[in-house]
Amino acid sequence: QIADPQLGFTTNSSDLTPDIASFNKAVDHINHLKPAFVVISGDFTNTPHDATQLNAFQEIVKKIKKSIPVYLVSGNHDLITATKDEIGNYEKALGKDHYSFSYKASKFIVLNSQLMYHPTADLTLKQNQREWFADQLKSTLNSKPEHIFVLTHHPWFLQNPDEADVYWTVPKVERRYYMDLMEKYGVDYALAGHYHREALAKVNKFTMVTTAPLAVAMGPEPIGFKIFKVYKDHVDFQYYPLTLIPEKVVM
To answer: Reduced to 3 states, what is the DSSP secondary structure of residue 89?
Structure first.
């Protein structure tokens, strides 16, 4: 999982070179490690809708080996106001803003958390995503996945589901709706970025994993990415600074 590559952030968009270098280094490690797939948890660029930054992002993603799928999760720098037109343009350039996929015995559900966060978000699309999410979870009653992962840009919470609204998290009114569904259907892991530092919280069987960024760390952890090892009965994960990525991953 890569969070917030945010090309341009290091220099306030005056020079993409530092963030391009970090992203390229991450891709080199990915191609060497050959994971089952890569998740990029939003904020692909620093300046929203900037063609130069977006093209640079897409060119680097293309360097990931074709045998390694890449799944994109939209962030607040990718969708600002979450209007119908903005989401339509995003989908033309980068793919669906919400979707699901499966790998072996796990199900992954990708959501557009800016629809939950921004006050101008399109209300119809917001409701459509809510209903779609409920249907996705209901379908797991038949498929019975070993793990259900929900992928967003914003964390649902940083310490506990009842915490007050802050810039970093999904607003409480939206959080409660989605958390109730995730509890009902046994979602066990949620992955996010946005916070630009590490955070980890566990509530009953639900684990909220927030991953530090690939551009501009705001906490003690240097920039890097997280590696997950998924087993039948548990999931192991560890964050690695970009300078300390392991040579191989042993299951």
So the answer is: helix
